[in-house]
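Form P-L/3: holo structure prediction, ligand nicotinamide-adenine-dinucleotide.
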Amino acid sequence: MATIIDGKAYAARLRAEIGLQVRTLREQHFVTPGLAVILVGEDPASQIYVRNKANQAREAQMSSFEYRLAYGVPEEQLLELIERLNQDPAVHGILVQLPLPPQVDPERVINAIRPDKDIDGFHPLNVGALATGGKGIVPCTPLGCLMLLKHHLGDLSGLHALVLGRSNIVGKPMASLLLKENCTVTIAHSRTRDLQAECQRADILVAAVGQPRLVAGHWIKPGATVIDVGINRIEEAGKALLVGDVDFDLARDVAGAITPVPGGVGPMTIACLLLNTLEAACRQNGIAFPGNIMQAAWGSVEGS
Ligand code: NAD
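OUTPUT (holo model):
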């Protein structure tokens, strides 16, 4: 039976550690990290994400600024708001919740965010830094996945990793991070010919496709570590359920370790958003980032 990788517990420890560092930053340097979140429209799922992000920022003692714009807002108005936040010294991280309505070009919006405030890591400069092994801001979901993998496996060198999905926000940056950790990386996607065979070769399988239970139990290499990024809302036997991209009940008999949905990657995404905001606040004020923050959170999970 697989070990269940408890992302919820790990994220809680990480957030607590971030909270301590935020307090130190305020007491020693008079800087309070500030996160600005922009929501356009009233998409129910986006509203929940934005509320969670703002609440958790406040719980970590950060300043949280929320901007809610109407669905029909002209692109120029959104760009003006971003420019104002770019200039605001109290704001260290800017996040624009996706998806955006059709009159707004997401590429223009992402490009308008100052790269050192782009705590989602989507700006081309941050994407380029990750791809070339440079120092930039890393997208939150893949960063959270990597932390869980390293927490569970330690050194990833030489392991065969399969990333299922090639989106700009999860699949591609995940593959870059795993390559940086010296994995042998394969990226699979909707045009991959034999998905099952690719999965069966993988010591590490990261699934980010958005297809409920696509990865069957017998697709998994015995003992593999499975990170399930998928969040799919389905209805089964008259009940609303949240399931991943992996068939959890069957996979847990084969895998060595697996993240559940919910309670796996999701909580890590928000914790990493706070981590990126803290790091951005440090960098913008010329303060050394507390590099031991991950180890501190790590140790406390293992000791719990
Ligand atoms: P996306 O739609 O942008 O990309 C999906 C990718 O999966 C594409 O590259 C596509 O080629 C591939 N794909 C689709 N169907 C496939 C199939 N049948 N076989 C093989 N490949 C297939 O999605 P995304 O934004 O990367 O998100 C993926 C999933 O992760 C979604 O369920 C999303 O809700 C979830 N997600 C979760 C978090 C989190 O915090 N847990 C964060 C972001 C995304």
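COMMENT: The mean pLDDT is 95.
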